[in-house]
Amino acid sequence: MEGVPFLHIQAQISPYPNTTPSHHMLVLDMMAPAMALRLLVVVAVAAVVSCAVAADEVGSVVEVWPMPATASKGGQTLHVSRELRMTAEGSKYADGEAILKDAFQRMVTLIELDHVINGSSQGLPLLAGVNVVVHLPGDELNFGVDESYNLSVPATGNPIYAQIEAQTVFGALHALETFSQLCNFDFTSRLIELQSAPWTITDMPRFPYRGLLIDTSRHYLPVPVIKSVIDSMTYSKLNVLHWHIVDEQSFPIEIPSYPKLWNGAYSYSERYTMDDAIDIVQYAERRGVNVLAEIDVPGHALSWGVGYPSLWPSATCKEPLDVSSESTFQVINGILSDFSKVFKFKFVHLGGDEVNTSCWTSTPRVKAWLAQHGMKESDAYRYFVLRAQKIAKSHGYEVINWEETFNNFGDKLDRRTVVHNWLGGGVAEKVVAAGLRCIVSNQDKWYLDHLEVTWDGFYMNEPLRNIKNPAQQKLVLGGEVCMWAEHIDASDIQQTIWPRAAAAAERLWTPFEKLSKEWEIAALSARLARFRCLLNHRGIAAGPVTGYGRSAPAEPSSCIKQ
Fold this sequence. Notes:
Blueprint: E1 8-12, H1 33-43, H2 46-49, E2 70-72, E3 76-87, H3 97-112, E4 126-134, E5 149-153, E6 160-166, H4 169-182, E7 183-186, E8 191-197, E9 199-203, E10 209-215, H5 223-235, E11 240-244, H6 274-285, E12 290-294, H7 304-307, H8 326-340, E13 347-349, H9 358-362, H10 364-372, H11 377-394, E14 398-402, H12 404-409, E15 418-421, H13 427-433, E16 437-440, H14 443-446, H15 455-459, H16 470-473, E17 476-483, H17 493-497, H18 500-509, H19 521-537
Parallel strand pairs: 3-4, 4-6, 10-11, 10-17, 11-12, 13-14, 14-15, 15-16, 16-17
Antiparallel strand pairs: 1-3, 2-9, 3-8, 5-6, 5-9, 7-8
Helix pairs in contact: 3-4, 5-6, 8-11
Domain Glycoside hydrolase family 20 catalytic: 207-511
Domain Beta-hexosaminidase eukaryotic type N-terminal: 64-182
Protein name: Beta-hexosaminidase
């Protein structure tokens, strides 16, 4: 047998709740027994009450989010062993073995949901463990890595083992998440159960880029909050955290090459060290999530000049960055040099949006430089963006820019540029027709700070709209929902993101032909409500499905009716 001959991990499902709370856990001691019983009566089945996304009866909808590519099930209920084991019989995955071990332990915590597990199996078949076979040995999270998996759960056997098969460890991580959604706490037996065995699921993502943007310039987000967001992303199989680190309001990250840059932070404590950034990146990568770093240049950079005033065109006109100064590009080079040691994702985002160039012509020194070089304001904007691209390329990055760069001088962009659409519809088709790659985030549908956009608007937003050519369709890398932070902070970020981001996540993961149609909204809403309840039980403060973004519950009722 090649590779790992036999990897054995045993997870004891404790009869008592963990004493150390985490963002995965729900402390049910806070819920009165009468309330728990009332929820049972309302929902009628324990699987729904616990909001674990288990299948119901044979032939009913598959309650997994996002919907897998293919899934079949039976009618047998299994109890999950309190000593659930993970084996790797037949696997070739040896490098970074801890990624899989840690993921399995997290999965056990998720299915336990901090309940007291102290019942007996009452004669039902017992699921003893999960065997995970990974065919490739590496664990480098490259863009476009194979995320596919097969998951099967037999109804019989001695012992009964679920089987996961994936090309890479990152596909196996997705399989473990799907497995966790098949399990729920049984309030009768006081055990974890898995309904509707045998299961056979084959799954893979529709798009390689499935992103969520967070903004730590408008409001600082503590490191534990960022990690909680990363965890929540994995529950709906999002795989890119776009970290909009700095903007005009604050510069919270340490840059060793230019240590005064983070003087532009809001306060001494609202900062990230380079070690913090490394910790966040590694935390994300171990969960199959890449971190895309962004510095938005030349606009959105007023905070840079707090530590280095020479980056401003003048003391009275501070944005965009001074295009006439070589030191401006030296600072960009220093930032990207430091980034290249931390942010290992192949892409870096250089912004390029909303650039008001009037400062350049109203500042005599810069205006003289423009005249000397025969440039108009628009020429200088293009010069700045293209020069910043060259600097990023020198550090091994491929560049993502916001769509204004394409709208203004698309034919001059580096041909490896990825254009990030945000202003509205119709841009992606123009970008791919020009032979460039594109990420879709049109603000009318996929901006989470637009609270008036309901979950169904997020779900029905199709990245390939009006793009019929198969070669051009492949140039659409995927999409991203954006959590701009002018009006959110650590107190309300999760209920603003979820569950609407999950609606977009299914659009980006599930095969087009399996996606729900507009006339199936009622059934889709019920599925999303159950997933939202699952997030709540996992400690993620997802808002109600009904109403607008970040709505409060309208009245007392079951979670699945909100």
